[in-house]
Design a protein that fits this description.
By secondary structure, this protein is of the alpha/beta class. The chain is 36% helix and 24% strand. The strands form four sheets. A six-stranded mixed β-sheet has the order 7-12-13-3-14-15, with helices on both faces. Strands 2-1-4-5-6 form a five-stranded antiparallel β-sheet, covered by helices on one side. Strands 8-9-10-11 form a four-stranded antiparallel β-sheet, with helices on one face. The two termini are 42 Å apart.
């Protein structure tokens, strides 16, 4: 996993990118579309995931990107996308999907150090500026791009008396293996059966496994859509652009993760560029930071958080206004410690508090600022060695060391753990002098033949019992003052 990410980052470096990906879109500047103005969407990785709450503008960016290329002169069948296709304007229902001065500035990679910049703008009633765009196939895979044939009455089993089977298109074994790996489900055979009915023609996916066959008429939506997308990515020309709308739809968690791994593989092999919208933190986590974007819309418009962590994205997407307060901490251990402090040292109800591990001290500070700007009441509690800044709603755990050291180097904690697990904490740490404090619980768990989570909760509870009454009062007060 890490290798393919590093490989793609290397392939996407300025000196290598054009040779690997052709005239890909490097940046899109959006002015005057659906509340987006002076918005710069920069591409830092060949696969870009756009996340955000509903209505933040994910689809708008994808639709605009799909309009970034001319039709290849050698392809007479392919139909390109235009701005008018995605932004219909009507007097009664949609009078202002874009302003009178709306424009899009595309920035493309070239085989020189200079980028190619082109502007699409509206003159009178028509959009202009398309002619100088680079040629490339661009595919917009929205929800309507794949509709099971059973839902298309003109071509489905509903017209079985008119249905004629035509040519079979075999699927390469490598595609079968890729679909199987993503879904963790073995297939004996996959192919597409040509069909026609009442002068309409199409093809329908068919799979065989466990001794029986079925077509997409009897597939789940996730299975059928995945087969459609993988087939598209593998068989369309190299260096194509693909816009995918929420590809996690109807895929279980591991399939989402495996699908992103597959996307990185196909991009590396075929030089595609992919932009997809998502609400899945699992899919975000599978990508490197360079491939993650998060949109925030408020009364001032839309802004982009670049290189957002999956933790940060999940915190925003899951939180909303459901909790009385959100608390950002640095990591999972800090979350466990704070949860137990609140549970045992206050009358606050944990179910009313959202505690989210965000990242390092800077990530916590940034997240607190952004969440409060969105109107979501949020504070940060960082490690004791960082300190606090009340003016920025940033507080800290008591003590002077990172939480792991405060807990596992505490004398009473050492005694309690030694007694329970019949080992010597101090001796274990002496034998591993270079051990990072984030790995204390993992090392102790190995010696105790248990899990790090159990060691952590044992250590935390012993630590809390060893603290005098009032030790955590300032921390609790900081939380209550912000409720």
């Amino acid at each position: 996993m890490a290798d393919i990410r590093k490989t793609l980052i290397s392939k996407f470096k300025p000196q290598n990118a054009y040779g690997n990906f052709g005239a890909f879109i490097k940046k899109i500047s959006i002015n005057g579309f659906r509340g987006m103005d002076k918005l710069d969407f920069e591409i830092e990785f060949p696969i870009t995931a756009i996340s955000g709450t509903n209505g933040s503008g994910k689809s708008t960016i994808g639709q605009i990107a799909a309009c970034g290329y001319r039709k290849p002169a050698t392809d007479r069948i392919y139909k390109r996308h235009y701005v008018k296709d995605f932004f219909p304007k009507s007097v009664h229902l949609d009078p202002t999907p874009f302003t009178d001065s709306a424009n899009i500035i595309f920035n493309y990679a070239t085989n020189t150090q200079q980028s190619q910049t082109l502007t699409i703008a509206r003159k009178n009633v028509e959009w202009s500026g398309y002619k100088r765009q680079p040629e490339r196939h661009s595919f917009y895979v929205g929800f309507a791009a794949y509709i099971p044939k059973i839902e298309r009455r003109g071509i489905s089993i509903y017209n079985s008396k008119h249905l004629v089977l035509t040519k079979i298109r075999e699927v390469d074994d490598s595609i079968k293996q890729k679909v199987a790996r993503i879904l963790n489900s073995y297939y004996d055979k996959i192919y597409f059966q040509g069909i026609s009915a009442k002068e309409k023609s199409n093809e329908i996916g068919v799979v065989s496994r466990y001794g029986y066959s079925y077509s997409e008429n009897n597939m789940g939506f996730g299975e059928g859509r995945l087969l459609y997308v993988v087939d598209l990515l593998e068989n369309e020309p190299d260096n194509s652009l693909f816009i995918l709308e929420e590809p996690e739809t109807s895929l279980h968690g591991d399939a989402q993760y495996q699908f992103v791994k597959y996307l990185m593989d196909v991009v590396s092999r075929k030089g595609h560029q992919i932009i997809f919208s998502t609400h899945s933190s699992t899919m975000l986590e599978a990508l490197p930071p360079e491939g993650r974007k998060f949109l925030i819309r408020d009364k001032n418009g839309v802004k982009i958080l670049n290189r957002i962590s999956a933790y940060r994205a999940r915190s925003i997407l899951a939180n909303g206004f459901e909790k009385a307060i959100s608390i950002c901490v640095e990591d999972v251990f800090a979350k466990s410690l704070l949860s137990e402090i609140i549970r045992t040292n206050s009358d606050l109800e944990l179910k009313s508090i959202q505690i989210a591990p965000i990242g390092d001290k800077l990530a916590v500070a940034t997240m607190v600022k952004q969440m409060n700007a969105m109107g979501i009441r949020t504070i940060g509690i960082r490690d004791a060695d960082v300190g606090k800044d009340d003016s920025k709603m940033l507080y800290s755990f008591p003590g002077s060391l990172p939480p792991e050291k405060e807990v596992f180097l505490d004398k009473q904690v050492i005694v309690d753990l030694n007694n329970k697990y019949s080992f010597d904490v101090e001796e274990i740490f002496k034998l591993t002098p270079d051990l990072n404090h984030h790995d204390y619980s993992k090392e102790l768990a190995k010696e105790a033949s248990t899990t790090k989570e159990i060691i952590e909760i044992d250590g935390i509870r012993s630590y809390l019992e060893s603290r005098s009454n009032g030790y955590f009062d300032d921390l609790i007060k900081s939380i209550k003052d912000n409720l």
